[in-house]
Amino acid sequence: YPTWKRTLTRRAREAQMKRFCKAQAIQRRLEEIEVTFRELEQQGIKLEKLLRDEDGTPADQKTQWMNQLLYLVQKKNSLMSEESDLMITVQELKLEEQQWQLDQKLRCYMNREESLKTPEDRVAEREILMQLLDVVNKRNVLIHIQEEKRLSEL
Questions:
Q1: Secondary structure (H, E, C), 1-58
Q2: Coiled-coil annotation: which residues (predicted)?
């Protein structure tokens, strides 16, 4: 087994583990965001009740509650934006994994001698290549979406 093949295999495993760890970190963060959403919702409900039952409450207290409510809305919007970014990253990781798998299949077909390939092999090779191009295009769309989002936030 040549050294270069062992190196490629090791690097592929490392890349796969890196994607897996990143996916786990994203999942943890999404769970944290969900918990924070619930907490913000509860705080918002309390503030809304205070504002509705404002009989005899000083104006500066009402203003303070309104400011707190606006802060909660701003924080929730920020978390929603982060959640959206994470979901795009999850899709990107899935497509990256799919691309890697298709690339491995395609390499198997391409490493065969042309004279030994059956017509079915050639068809399968073309199909895998088309699937690979589709995945690359989908990743490109995700990158474009992220870039548009980043530019709109500026």
A1: CCHHHHHHHHHHHHHHHHHHHHHHHHHHHHHHHHHHHHHHHHHHHHHHHHHHCCCCCC
A2: 23-50
